Amino acid sequence: PDFTVPVVRAHVAAGRAAGRYRYEGRAFRVAAAGRPQEFGQIGLESLGEAKILLDTAERSGLPVAVVRAA
Hints:
Elements: H1 4-14, E1 19-30, E2 36-47, H2 52-69
Antiparallel strand pairs: 1-2
């Protein structure tokens, strides 16, 4: 969820009805012990899509396609 909020905010600010976004980067989270924790995050967001089940099925197959292509 660390990159999801800024992606959604940018989408709304741009006034787009629908959009697909992908991202990869370092994110930070405050751990239970109160110390910041850095981690890598990769994500896909599909906003305003009418075909939610089709989009979910498409995303579910993406990791398989990436591994096969490697």
